[in-house]
């Protein structure tokens, strides 16, 4: 692999890994904010406005990081992968254009009204603005996942003179893997936000903040997590079967299956060796993979051997997949334990709270490893079967890519640390502010003006 | 030049032209809209702490949407002119990265400065100024490289550096006049003073660029200085001059009116600055057309397939007016002088 290719891949991976962290929060958090707003409109209970007040700040911060890192993405296509747009620009272009036109402007414009317009528009209009932001974030996910899915399972096009031309836009958008990927990603977003809500609220309660706003947010988070975790596992299974049908090489890498065979075992643990094409220290469940993927112990599965020069590297895909599944199972266990405690005692134990606090950003682990599984699993292709990654890479000098990569990495490391610490800082600040305000009355004013100077926000 | 333009009756002829116009308008919208908030970002360096908060409050509800115009502009380059996208962004690899790092820094500093621990605020304020400056300079530098067709000699690079400084002062002017419009009291007076300084800087810059452009590019020189061209083109420099004059006069008269609590005409400097940018942009577009990369690639050579362009055009015509509509609505919601921003 030449230097520019490796560096470009690293740079793109760094940028998109950083970027995806924030949309994965803002997509679902927008709907959660709408839920808080709706509950407040319906009940007049100030606890929902208290929850809204904290979480809208987290949203604003998250959204800003998503916007700026998203701008970077729109340039990276051209700077790092010119061959991508030259070959499949006729497909990718319109999908990206529709994302900008229908989603980006909508969410960015109404975000201003949602964040700062409360005193300038009616309560109804403010709720509508919140709704439009939520629709915008999900619509943006729709278009970008249509494009990403098309890169995995291209459809509805024909190649003319080495350039892809669309023949059926419906087939392009609703390509075979899109429905599965869309559902799997949206559920991941809701699960990420569920643990963010639960983790940060558990943190507040552990610090002695027993306000209804903190307790309600914890409850919403735990209920969301315990509903979405099993749904996500089911959706992931269906997505996996879809991948087996369309990208068997990826599944072979996920299962570290080197040779095609009937009745393949499920490899629980191993050190896949891409050089010698075998697993070391393998711990296997006989017939496991065949049972899961073919629902038949004697089912036949393709191994890496069937895809000469067209199979992804096994070790990273294998490990990313296992970490993702492990994270998912851990989330399920913790969510159900917390839900059980809430049901029995109307509160969660100190240990569970600590666990939830530690897992505040666990969604990110699942999202990133899931992402690496599917994207590294598509290699050596950029567009499955159509365009190889190596053929799309830029011709700029490797030095330029290396220097900018270093710049991005430093910036992103600083920003992630700042983001996480500020989110916890906001939670502490909210607790202090709520404590000063005192326990809200059962049916307080419909709108709580923020009286505390510390709460004024300008950005 | 005529032989570069294909039959405009065919879809492959007129569609790229339409998208060039849409891309041009999107970039102009970006330059003006993000220009004023980048400009406010630069001026933060000169302001007191209390002024900083008001200045940022004046752009708080808008900056996200303003930057979306950049995504649209680059999006159209990517979508409608995929062959130019790689060439342009490949040639501008380093300045693009600098701009992106700048935009990222300022975009997040916006939020972090009020949400982070109080003692970090100074740091985020600095990041906000630094990010705005990096982004403004990088954009000007890229513009300069584009005008010289990415020539690599020293003069071309010096010219690009000159444009970088000019664009930054243009943004400062936009930012200062935006503040004249959106603030009152002492900050408004300070903004007038800032605007009066930056209007001179900008005028100097525009004159320098106008003089230097024909020197670095023979093609552009010939386009402007043929006799029949001058007859058609004279409104551009004349209108630019008129806008400068009106802006300068308004900035001198405003303080007297403000002494009597009269805000009449506080929008004039901002509007005329937009006019100056519009004229400069118009001249630039004329200089480059029909090329998208000067002397190397025309918009038709760079364009995507007609059926893809058609698919986007339908959506653009349906959606863009709606976008413009609710953008105007958002500006109306936050019209008038800036008050402190609160989430409630």
Keywords:
heterodimer; A: 459 residues; mainly alpha; two-stranded antiparallel sheet; 15 helices; 7% strand; globular; B: mainly alpha; Formate dehydrogenase/DMSO reductase fold; two-stranded antiparallel ribbon
Please describe what this structure looks like:
The complex is a heterodimer of chains A (459) and B (344). Chain A has one domain (3-260, 302-437). Chain A is built from 15 helices and 8 strands. Chain A has helices spanning 3-21, 23-43, 46-80, 82-116, 123-152, 169-173, 178-206, 212-246, 248-254, 288-294, 314-345, 350-358, 362-376, 389-392, 398-437, and strands at 157-160, 163-166, 261-262, 266-273, 278-285, 300-301, 381-383, 387-388. In chain A, helix 3 (46-80) runs antiparallel to helix 4, helix 3 runs antiparallel to helix 15 and helix 8 (212-246) packs across helix 9. Chain B has a single domain, classed as Formate dehydrogenase/DMSO reductase fold, CATH 1.20.1630. With 344 residues, chain B is an all-alpha fold. The model of chain B has no long low-confidence stretch (mean pLDDT 85). In chain B, strands 1-2 form a two-stranded antiparallel sheet. At the A-B interface, helix 3, helix 4, strand 2 and helix 15 of A face helix 2, helix 3, helix 4, helix 5 and helix 14 of B.
Q: Biggest sheet of chain B: strands side by side, in what order?
A: 1-2
Q: What's the total count of β strands of chain A?
A: 8
Topology order of chain A in helix (H) and strand (E) letters: HHHHHEEHHHHEEEHEHHHEEHH
The CATH topology of chain B is what? Formate dehydrogenase/DMSO reductase fold
Question: Could you tell me how far the N terminus lies from the C terminus of chain B, measured between alpha carbons in angstroms?
Answer: 58 Å
Low-confidence stretches of chain B: none
What is the alpha-carbon Rg of chain A in Å?
24 Å
Helix content of chain B: over 70%
Number of domains of chain B: 1
Mean pLDDT of chain B: 85
Structural class computed from helices and strand pairing of chain A:
mainly alpha
Considering residues with a beta carbon less than 8 A from a beta carbon on another chain, report the largest interface and each chain's count. Answer: A-B, 79 and 69 residues
Tally of individual helices of chain A: 15
CATH class (first level) name of chain B: Mainly Alpha
**SS strand fraction of chain A:** 5-15%
Morphology of chain B: globular
Relative strand content of chain B: under 5%
Strand/helix succession of chain B = HHHHHHHHHHHHEEHH
């Amino acid at each position: 692999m030449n230097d520019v290719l490796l560096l470009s891949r690293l740079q793109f991976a760094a940028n998109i890994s950083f970027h995806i962290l924030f949309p994965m929060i803002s997509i679902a958090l927008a709907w959660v904010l709408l839920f808080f707003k709706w509950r407040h409109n319906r009940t007049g209970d100030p606890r929902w406005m208290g929850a809204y007040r904290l979480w809208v700040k987290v949203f604003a911060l998250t959204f800003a990081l998503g916007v700026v890192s998203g701008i970077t993405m729109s340039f990276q296509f051209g700077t790092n992968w010119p061959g991508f747009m030259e070959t499949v620009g006729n497909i990718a272009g319109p999908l990206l254009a529709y994302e900008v036109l229908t989603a980006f402007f909508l969410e960015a414009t109404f975000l201003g009204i949602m964040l700062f317009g409360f005193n300038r528009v009616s309560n109804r209009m403010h709720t509508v603005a919140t709704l439009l932001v939520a629709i915008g974030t999900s619509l943006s996910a729709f278009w970008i996942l249509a494009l990403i899915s098309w890169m995995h399972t291209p459809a509805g096009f024909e190649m003319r003179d080495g350039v892809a031309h669309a023949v059926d836009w419906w087939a392009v958008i609703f390509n075979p893997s899109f429905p599965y990927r869309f559902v799997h990603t949206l559920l991941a977003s809701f699960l990420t936000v569920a643990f963010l809500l639960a983790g940060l609220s558990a943190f507040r309660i552990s610090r002695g903040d027993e306000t209804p706003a903190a307790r309600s947010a914890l409850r919403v988070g735990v209920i969301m997590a315990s509903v979405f975790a099993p749904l996500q596992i089911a959706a992931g299974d269906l997505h996996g079967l879809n991948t087996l049908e369309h990208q068997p090489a990826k599944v072979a890498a996920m299962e570290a299956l080197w040779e095609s065979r009937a009745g393949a075992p499920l490899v629980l643990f191993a050190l896949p060796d891409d050089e010698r094409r075998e697993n070391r220290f393998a711990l296997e469940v006989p017939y496991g993979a065949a049972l899961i993927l073919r629902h038949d112990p004697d089912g036949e599965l393709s191994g890496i051997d069937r895809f000469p020069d067209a199979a992804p590297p096994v070790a990273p895909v294998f490990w990313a997949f296992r970490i993702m599944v492990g994270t998912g199972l851990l989330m399920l266990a913790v969510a159900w334990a917390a839900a059980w405690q809430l049901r029995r005692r109307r509160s969660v134990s100190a240990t569970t709270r600590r666990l939830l606090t530690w897992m505040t950003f666990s969604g990110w682990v699942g999202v990133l490893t899931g992402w690496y599984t599917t994207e590294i699993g598509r290699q050596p292709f950029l567009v499955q079967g159509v365009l190889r990654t190596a053929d799309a890479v830029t011709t700029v000098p490797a030095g330029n890519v290396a220097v900018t990569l270093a710049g991005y990495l430093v910036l992103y490391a600083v920003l992630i640390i700042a983001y996480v610490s500020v989110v916890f800082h906001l939670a502490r600040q909210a607790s202090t502010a709520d404590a000063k305000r005192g326990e809200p009355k059962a049916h307080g004013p419909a709108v709580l003006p923020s009286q505390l100077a510390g709460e004024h926000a300008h950005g | 030049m005529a032989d570069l333009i294909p039959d405009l009756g065919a879809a492959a002829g007129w569609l790229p032209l339409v998208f060039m116009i849409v891309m041009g308008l999107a970039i102009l919208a970006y330059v003006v809209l993000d220009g004023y908030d980048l400009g406010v970002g630069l001026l933060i360096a000169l302001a007191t702490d209390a002024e900083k908060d008001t200045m940022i409050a004046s752009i708080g509800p808008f900056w996200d949407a303003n930057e979306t115009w950049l995504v649209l502009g680059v999006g159209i380059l990517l979508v409608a002119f995929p062959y130019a996208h790689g060439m342009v962004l490949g040639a501008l690899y380093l300045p693009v990265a600098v701009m992106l790092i700048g935009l990222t820094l300022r975009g997040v500093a916006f939020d972090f400065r009020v949400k982070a621990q109080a003692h970090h605020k100074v740091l985020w304020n600095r990041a906000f100024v630094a990010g705005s400056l990096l982004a403004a300079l990088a954009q000007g530098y890229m513009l300069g490289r584009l005008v010289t067709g990415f020539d690599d000699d020293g003069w071309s690079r010096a010219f690009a550096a000159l444009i970088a400084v000019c664009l930054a002062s243009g943004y400062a002017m936009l930012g200062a006049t935006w503040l004249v419009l959106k603030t009152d009291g002492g900050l408004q007076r300070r903004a007038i003073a800032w605007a009066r300084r930056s209007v001179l800087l900008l005028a100097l810059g525009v004159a320098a660029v106008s003089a230097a452009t024909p020197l670095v590019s023979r093609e552009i020189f010939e386009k402007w200085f043929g006799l029949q061209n001058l007859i058609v083109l004279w409104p551009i420099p004349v209108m630019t001059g008129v806008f400068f004059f009106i802006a300068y006069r308004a900035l001198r008269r405003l303080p007297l009116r403000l002494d009597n609590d009269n805000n009449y005409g506080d929008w004039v400097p901002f509007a005329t600055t937009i006019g100056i940018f519009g004229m400069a942009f118009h001249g630039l577009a004329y200089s480059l057309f029909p090329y998208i990369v000067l002397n190397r690639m025309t918009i038709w050579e760079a364009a995507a397939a007609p059926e893809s362009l058609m698919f986007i055009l339908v959506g653009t015509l349906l959606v863009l007016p709606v976008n413009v509509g609710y953008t105007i609505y958002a500006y109306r919601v936050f019209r008038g002088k800036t008050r402190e921003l609160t989430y409630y």
